[in-house]
Amino acid sequence: MNPEKAILPETVGAWKAAAAPRKIDAGNIFDYMNGAGELYLAYHFDHMLAWEYRDGSDNDLLVELYRMQGSDDAFGLLSLDWGGEAVAWPHGAKIIPSSAAVPPARALYGEGLLRLWSDDLYARVMAVRETPAAREAILVLAQAIVAGRSDPPPPALLRLLPTVLNPQWKLKIDRSAFIRSHLVLNSLYYLSHDNILGLDSSCEAVFTSYEKEGRRLHLLVIQYADDRSAEQGLAGFLAGYIPEGAKGGPATPPAELGFFLVEDGWLGFHKAGRRLAVVFQCPDLDAARRIVAQVGLEN
Amino acid sequence: MKKKRVIVTRRDFIRGSAGAALGAALLGPAWLKAEAKAAGGQRSLVVIVRDAKAMDANLSVDKQAVASMLEQALAQVTGKADARAAWLSLVKPTDIVGLVPTPHLNPTHDQLIEVVRESLVAAGVPSGHIVHAQGRDVDLAPITALICLPALKAHWLTGIGTVIKNYILYSGAPRNYHHQDSAKLGEIWNLPQVKGKTRLVLVDALHPLCDKGPQPDPRYKWAYNGLIASLDPVAVDAVGLKIISAKREALRGEPWPISPPPICIEAADKVYKLGNSDPAKIDIKVFGWKENLLV
Predict the structure, then answer these.
(1) CA B55 to CA B51: how far, in whole Å?
(2) B86 assigned to some structural domain
(3) Do A126 and B104 lie within an 8 Å CB cutoff?
(4) Which one of A278, B110, B119, B137 has the largest count of C-beta atoms within 10 Å of its C-beta?
(5) Shortest CB distance from A190 goes to which of B104, B219, B260?
(6) Which helix (H) or strand (E) holds A78?
């Protein structure tokens, strides 16, 4: 049985499903999204089903259910933007935090668009125009999507993000994102159009920001598939981003701890096993040293 | 000897050397030649016409208001007295005129396409000479004039996805122009079947999109209620970028730079010679509604 077949109702409020859902996979996602399917392919995308609901007044609802290969990937898509009103079911239910490093929301609504993460599903439910009735219909559809599904915790890698970095840099939880690709990283924090860190679908990474007295610094923690990949990732980063720091040839493993003053502040990195942490835009060397030391890569 | 690969990074943008680094990385000697010729050049005019009533609270477009905005934009861009004279300074009645709207993400409003068509017909261009010209299957050979009609929008892979990117499907291989290669978008404007045909760039800035994609997110759309017109495609993109950047900062209340940086604009200027990207060389004239102008 198609597991998605019975998820959504035929009608919701004044809206009626227009036809059977359209199935999108890696082979046709570029047609569906005008050549911009990379976002979903940057995570472990399996397929997507798209439904249209019509109310006869041109205020269509579009439901897109992205079936990912794991919960972390669906979470990653939601984590790219924590804006909007947190929604829980039943209506008004308390939202229980599942990680100190990210907002507790699993569904976010704003101006006619609801996005949600439910286990291995990421969903977008959107109205052409936001109206009270459209909002209600969107929430009903979203509730139908999540009904009976489990709520796994966010990616374990988030646990490596300290909520406070000494001295008093506070984690901006609404800037914490789970990523696997340099394209997605660039959409959050541009480093290079080249994939200098060697990110790919075998990697897990979290990117976030910390704030202190109006100043920001940024932290990237990557878990590569293995130690060798991490070594290559660091070497590529040094060669591409800090060529003045890339000593030795390809056969020489880079130092696993380093600090550099670059154009926008101090940069520090620390590699331990298959994990790499890089902190950007630190105000001084001392801060960079202390911050890198506080990210427990060995945990 | 193996050529050393140039990698463009955030540091190049902070140093202000990104243009040179990109040019060298992507275009090699062509960039150096272009740099040598870059000094001087003409100024560009960009006209912004806005009407607070161009859309109502339900975002329905007032076609009459848009028609009036178009008329004013045409007259100001060309320096002619009215829309008819303006069109006839840009196209001939014998031209086959291709209209190139944006079909995806933040589509060009149908009402704008309709008023452009109607205005052209009123100027004496036969209706049968006006064709839809967006898409990879369009035969550009018989088309003698193009009106570039994109909607103003940010793009998650190229930074901005408005004017220079609007002809991407003419390349036949749009995926070749994403990521770093978005710097090469300008080369599409110089393809033999495209070069020199664009007579007017008219950006639909009624309801722009300042972030996200690949799908629209209504939280990042707002009623700007404007049209932006120019004969210079690069200058319009530069002004659009300014508007989008200002809106992003206003939304967050803090700097929120477009990421990745829209490298296609500077390259379109300095490498492909399509127009001016330098704000110091762009004159902006504003007409109509001035609230939250963002330039």
Answers:
(1) 8
(2) yes
(3) no
(4) A278
(5) B260
(6) helix A71-79
State how many domains chain B has. Answer: 1
| pLDDT (tens digit per residue) in A115-156 | 999 999 999 999 999 999 999 999 999 999 999 999 999 999
| Residues 217-246 of chain B whose Cβ lies under 8 A from any Cβ of chain A | 217-219
- Please give, rounded to a whole number of angstroms, the shortest distance from the CA of A299 to a CA of chain B: 31
Instruction: Count CB atoms within 10 A of the CB of residue A244.
Output: 8
Mutate to test the interface with A, among B17, B166, B217, B266 (most CBs of A within 10 A): B217
pLDDT (tens digit per residue) in B163-192 = 999 999 999 988 788 777 888 999 999 999
Domain housing B226: 46-288
A34 to B104: CB separation less than 8 angstroms, yes or no: yes
- Is residue B22 domain-resident? no
Are A263 and B15 in contact (CB < 8 Å)?
A: yes
Asked whether residue B21 is assigned to any structural domain, the reply reads no
Report if pTM > 0.95: no
The mean per-residue pLDDT over the stretch A251-266 comes to 86
ipTM greater than 0.85, yes or no? yes
Please give the residue that has the higher pLDDT: either B165 or B23: B165
- Domain-embedded: residue B59: yes
Q: What order of strands is seen across the sheet that includes strand A169-179?
A: A164-165, A169-179, A204-212, A215-223, A275-282, A265-272, A257-262
